[in-house]
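Section 5.1 Outputs to date
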Amino acid sequence: MKRIVKILKDKKYTISAMESCTGSYFVNCITNIPGASEVLKFSATTYSNEFKIKMGVNKKIIDKYSVYSIETAKEMSKSISDFTKSDYGVGITGKINRIDKNNLFGKDNLVYISIYNKNNKKYYTDIIKTRRVSRKLNKVIIVNKVIRLLKKIIR
């Protein structure tokens, strides 16, 4: 994460995130780095559909594809980038080894990641199958994947 923050600072880029299943672990990792306030504009932990929608995610996307989909992750990343006027928006949604009684639609044990680049209006996405380990370790695995994806994008 140190490298990500340094690159963002050097290039004068900003980032924001809307996270669900990771509970803002991604942003926590950013804020552990000195100088993070120069690059991080805002974060939202949107566990409920209601607050994803309030933050700009299109309800029709959730209804059509489920809250657990790459389409919703893309909406999350773009919505947070638009809301904060950040160069990059990160959206993370999915299920980590549990069934969500409020959202039965959507595959179990998959996490969807989207990074939106405002400057070229492009999405970078990935899907991770969660492991049968603790939620905490799954969050580390997911955020490491986001970091690897960001390194490729922001060079």
